[in-house]
Amino acid sequence: MNLTTYKKLHKKYSILPLPREVWGTPEHDAFMDAFHNNEECKTWDLKQRIKKAGINYKNYCCLDMAYHLIEDIKSKRSENVNYDCVITYYKKGNTFGIPIHDGGSSFIMIKYCPWCGKKLA
Question: What's the pTM value of the predicted model, to 2 decimals?
């Protein structure tokens, strides 16, 4: 699937929740296959999600890091523990970490990006 076709289908399949009858259709399967196996489609899709969350992906080492910080932003806006959050960023100290989901704000500091391997600031 090329990027132009992917973008057209994205409008159709990005409105969640998707009806159950859509799952497993040849068109939806092709769309999901393009996301997972076509780097151009995946990159475009991640940039859309990151932009929608109000994050400038250029401020981070890679798209995956910026994408996974979306849940961190959501968790900081809520009083509840966000168990979907797999990476966190603390401005104070310019520190990244893996959150410990114990109801508090503790985390395990990391020095390298789990997705691209670059040294973090």
Answer: 0.82
